[in-house]
């Protein structure tokens, strides 16, 4: 009996000893209870990423993955505080636009020498994906997607307004004037708003204005750090949107949840939102309780000279301190990243664009719902310009744009105020 | 001899014993309150990037008062008696009220003094404005302070008056009143996340209870949280609902302290109900009211969660409050030095109100 007990204890020690490599993981995307370990059937960002993490936890020998709280709102504040406190998560997700801030300070581990050994083939990444995780010649993360703003379209309303091509695709505007015309047609035919988006809280309005400025070949600041917001291009971009509010073809007061609800309720012809909701809206459209039934996705239309839509990338990074101080956990963290990299096709199910050439060229990818409807987005995707404090800059723009459409501040005042403040931030 | 030994056994004088008993408290107080406070002041004198200093402790630089100047001051700032007519008129009225109230014997010296100082600040501070070619170095700071004061000015009377009415109505021994007291207190135990979630749903123009009511009555729903006119009101309403409980309990305790004899004597003179409340309850609750008001002022100057979670400070910064700005400056922008300077400013404001309470309390003794 005694031997049996001893044997069991030893065996238990051996097992737990082998399974002791815990990797803490920080992410946003929100919580998903009961995501399970089946990476091929989950729906929505939160559940797809959690199912991939759960699968990594189950399938990788000797590694347990501990997911930290998944809240959106304060994610970067928490990450900054965690780094400042010296205890960042072993791997964490981040946006490409944050790379200058974190990598610039030496917070992130440079991974280029270790990726191949971990089973991550860098040459399989699309050039833009490699670019997204590169900083001063080093690789500081594993890219997971490209995401961009799309036009989510309710075809039933478009049809009623006569805005459908022979091939069944929606007729979208090619100029600000045409945008107004189409909006009037929708209003006349159905009484519904033409366009909905979160203009009130989340910075989707900023991303819209950025896209419309890029379409005119202009930007919010130059590479040498001069703010260029008080410009003709910005004025054109803003009035393209405010003309819709002025005529009552769009409601600036809706926030993210409300604008989405308006679209799902069939009260708006177009919703401007990202790639991350394509699978969710497709699922909602299939639900007979939801008013939206004929759902279509379209590339962000070109209203000015050249195509452009706001885009960014999600990527996974490892803290520099982990690589330096704890090689075993670092190796385990790399294996988790390799696992996520291997499941790029599952993540693409959200509606995001994949980063690996082998996935982009696969039939499984091409066969994803609505994928062919926004095939042009990759070519027009544009990143926010690189700046160490982009978070604060975006906040200034969001505030001043809200001031225009929610509080009646004049466009001239708002743009010149925004330019002053952004210049302050650029000057540090 | 035996007595001597006994004395030796006791050993400690009263002062020594007091010192030993105080040590645990002082150690905790010093380590967790006094030291961090002075450390904060010290950080506020540095150019201190939260992330950069974490990776390189030498990345901070002593800059003296620069963080304070960058926060509070601007280029070509001038002072004018009519720069902000509304606020300054309110200030003048406050000074006048303090002066004549004191002369007429309606206000105590301390109250008059506090009112006078507050009035002077209202005349003085809003008078500063950027002159020609001038600008505030931080254009968001003073509007944020203004929003915080607006919030306090709405939330404190709101909580105090509502809690007072509830306490007067629910004082008594019937079962229904006991149940209602518990119900009204219940909201107080919720965390700010839960409170804001409940009220975000209540205020939602699509699914919210309030919107459904307005629509049922034939009106079009108000978009509370993203309308500049209503956003501040929305977070004030949520705050009043949330923080009624403690104030109500304090008032209930105060009301129960008032001798029943007074009410009986008053009833003989035909003073019952509202009259009794006005002429007996209110005057006897003066100290409790002062306490509740000062506690609420100090508490609500630190408002953060309601604005952060319900409106994200918007629209157009109209609900941006001081603690949220400090939080953003420190953790989003990593500017720990400037954030600490703002925190010191907030400390001075709250310290001033604590001082007022201290003076008023002493005077009444």
What does this structure look like?
- Chain A has 428 residues and is of the alpha/beta class.
- Chain A folds into 2 domains: 22-146 and 313-342, D-Maltodextrin-Binding Protein, domain 2, CATH 3.40.190.10; 148-311 and 377-427, D-Maltodextrin-Binding Protein, domain 2 (3-Layer(aba) Sandwich), CATH 3.40.190.
- Chain A contains 19 helices and 13 strands.
- Chain A has helices spanning 2-18, 45-59, 75-84, 99-104, 127-133, 155-160, 176-190, 204-214, 232-246, 256-264, 278-286, 320-325, 327-342, 344-348, 357-360, 363-366, 377-380, 390-407, 411-427, and strands at 21-26, 63-67, 91-95, 134-135, 138-139, 142-143, 147-154, 193-196, 268-274, 295-299, 309-312, 314-317, 381-383.
- In chain A, the strands form 3 sheets. In chain A, strands 7, 8, 9, 10, 11 and 13 form a 6-stranded mixed beta sheet that branches. A 5-stranded mixed beta sheet of chain A has the order 2-1-3-12-6, sandwiched between helices. In chain A, strands 4-5 form a two-stranded antiparallel ribbon.
- In chain A, helix 7 runs parallel beside helix 9 (232-246), helix 8 crosses helix 9 and helix 18 (390-407) runs antiparallel to helix 19.
- The radius of gyration of chain A is 23 Å and the shape is globular.
- Chain B has helices spanning 2-10, 14-44, 50-55, 66-72, 85-103, 109-124, 141-170, 175-186, 192-203, 209-216, 228-257, 260-268, 273-284, 286-301, 305-311, 322-332, 336-364, and strands at 46-47, 61-62, 74-79, 128-136.
- The radius of gyration of chain B is 25 Å and the shape is globular.
- The interface between A and B is large, with 39 and 32 residues.
Summary tags:
A: 428 residues; alpha/beta; D-Maltodextrin-Binding Protein, domain 2; 2 domains; 6-stranded mixed β-sheet; 5-stranded mixed β-sheet; 19 helices; 13 strands; B: 365 residues; mainly alpha; MetI-like fold; two-stranded antiparallel ribbon; 17 helices; 4 strands; globular
* Mean pLDDT level of chain A: 92
CATH superfamily of the domain at 141-319 in chain B: MetI-like
- Which CATH top level class of the largest domain in chain A fits? Alpha Beta
DSSP strand count of chain A: 13
- CATH-level-2 architecture of the domain at 141-319 in chain B: Orthogonal Bundle
Q: What is the averaged pLDDT score of chain B? A: 89
Give the proportion of residues in helices of chain B.
over 70%
Task: Kindly identify the CATH topology of the domain at 141-319 in chain B.
Answer: MetI-like fold
Most extensive chain contact?
A: A-B, 39 and 32 residues
Radius of gyration over C-alpha positions of chain B, nearest whole angstrom = 25 Å
CATH topology of the largest domain in chain A: D-Maltodextrin-Binding Protein, domain 2
Q: How far is it from the N-terminal to the C-terminal residue of chain A, by CA?
A: 72 Å
CATH architecture of the largest domain in chain A, by name, is 3-Layer(aba) Sandwich
| Shape type of chain A | globular
- Name the CATH superfamily classification of the largest domain in chain A: Periplasmic binding protein-like II
Helix content of chain A: 40-55%
Relative strand content of chain B:
5-15%
Number of helices of chain B: 17
How many separate domains make up the residues of chain A? 2
């Amino acid at each position: 009996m005694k031997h049996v007990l001893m044997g069991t204890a030893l065996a238990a020690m051996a097992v737990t000893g082998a399974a002791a490599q815990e990797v803490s993981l920080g992410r946003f995307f929100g919580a998903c209870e009961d995501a399970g370990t089946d990476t091929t059937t989950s729906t929505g960002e939160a559940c797809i990423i959690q199912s991939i993490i759960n699968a990594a936890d189950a399938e990788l020998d000797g590694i347990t993955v501990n997911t930290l709280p998944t809240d959106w709102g304060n994610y970067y504040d928490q990450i900054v505080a965690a780094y400042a406190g010296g205890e960042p998560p072993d791997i964490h997700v981040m946006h490409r636009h944050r790379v200058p801030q974190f990598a610039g300070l030496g917070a992130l581990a440079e991974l280029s020498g270790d990726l191949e050994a971990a089973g991550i083939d860098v040459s399989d990444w699309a050039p833009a994906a490699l670019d997204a995780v590169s900083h001063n010649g080093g690789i500081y993360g594993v890219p997971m997607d490209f995401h961009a703003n799309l036009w989510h379209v309710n075809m039933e309303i478009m049809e009623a307004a006569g805005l459908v091509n022979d091939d069944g695709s929606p007729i979208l505007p090619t100029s600000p004037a045409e945008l107004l015309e189409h909006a009037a047609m929708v209003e006349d035919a159905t009484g519904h708003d033409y366009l909905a988006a979160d203009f009130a809280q989340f910075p989707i309005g900023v991303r819209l204005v950025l896209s419309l400025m890029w379409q005119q070949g202009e930007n919010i600041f130059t590479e040498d750090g001069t703010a260029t917001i008080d410009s003709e291009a910005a004025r054109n971009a803003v009035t393209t949107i405010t003309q819709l509010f002025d005529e009552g073809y769009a409601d600036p007061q809706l926030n993210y949840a409300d604008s989405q609800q308006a679209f799902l309720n069939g009260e708006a012809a177009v919703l401007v939102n990202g790639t991350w909701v394509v699978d969710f809206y497709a699922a909602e459209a299939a639900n007979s309780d939801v008013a939206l039934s004929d759902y279509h996705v379209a590339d962000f239309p070109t209203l000015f000279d050249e195509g452009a839509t706001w885009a960014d990338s999600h990527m996974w990074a490892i803290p520099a301190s982990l690589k330096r101080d704890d090689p075993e956990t670092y190796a385990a963290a790399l294996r988790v990243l390799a696992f996520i990299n291997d499941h790029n096709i599952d993540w693409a199910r959200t509606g995001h664009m994949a980063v690996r050439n082998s996935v982009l060229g696969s039939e499984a990818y091409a066969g994803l719902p609505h994928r062919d409807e926004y095939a042009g987005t990759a070519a027009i995707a544009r990143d926010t310009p690189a700046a160490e404090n982009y978070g604060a800059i975006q906040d200034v723009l969001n505030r001043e744009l809200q001031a225009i459409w929610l509080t009646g501040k004049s466009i001239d005042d708002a743009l010149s105020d925004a330019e002053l403040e952004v210049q302050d931030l650029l000057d540090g | 001899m035996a007595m001597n030994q006994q004395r030796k056994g006791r050993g400690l004088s009263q002062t020594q014993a007091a010192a030993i008993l105080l040590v645990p408290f002082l150690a905790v107080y010093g380590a967790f309150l006094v030291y961090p406070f002075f450390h904060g002041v010290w950080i506020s004198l540095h150019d201190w990037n939260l992330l950069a200093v974490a990776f390189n402790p030498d990345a901070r630089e002593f800059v003296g008062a620069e963080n304070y100047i960058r926060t509070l001051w601007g280029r070509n700032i001038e002072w004018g008696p009519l720069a902000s007519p509304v606020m300054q008129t309110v200030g003048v009225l406050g000074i006048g009220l303090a002066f004549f109230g004191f002369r007429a014997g309606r206000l105590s010296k301390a109250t008059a003094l506090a009112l006078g100082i507050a009035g002077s600040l209202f005349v003085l501070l809003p008078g500063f404005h950027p002159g020609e070619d001038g600008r505030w170095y931080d254009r968001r700071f003073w509007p944020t302070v203004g929003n915080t004061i607006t919030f306090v000015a709405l939330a404190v009377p709101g909580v105090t008056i509502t809690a007072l009415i509830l306490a007067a109505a629910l004082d008594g021994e019937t079962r229904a009143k006991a149940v209602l007291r518990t119900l009204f207190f219940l909201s107080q135990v919720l965390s700010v996340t839960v409170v804001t979630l409940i009220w975000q749903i209540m205020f939602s123009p699509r699914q919210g209870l309030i919107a459904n009511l307005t629509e049922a009555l034939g009106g079009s729903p108000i978009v509370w949280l993203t309308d500049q006119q209503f956003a501040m009101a929305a977070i004030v309403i949520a705050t009043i609902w949330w923080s009624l409980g403690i104030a109500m309990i304090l008032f209930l305790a105060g009301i129960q302290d008032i001798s029943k004899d007074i009410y009986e004597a008053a009833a003989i003179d035909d003073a019952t109900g509202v009259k009794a409340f006005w002429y007996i309850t209110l005057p006897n609750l003066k100290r409790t009211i002062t306490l509740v008001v000062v506690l609420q002022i100090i508490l609500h100057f630190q408002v953060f969660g309601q604005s952060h979670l319900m409106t994200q400070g918007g629209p157009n910064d109209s609900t941006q409050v001081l603690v949220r700005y400090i939080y953003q400056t420190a953790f989003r922008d990593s500017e720990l030095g400037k954030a600490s300077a703002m925190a010191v400013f907030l400390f001075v404001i709250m310290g001033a109100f604590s001082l007022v309470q201290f003076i008023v309390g002493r005077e009444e003794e």
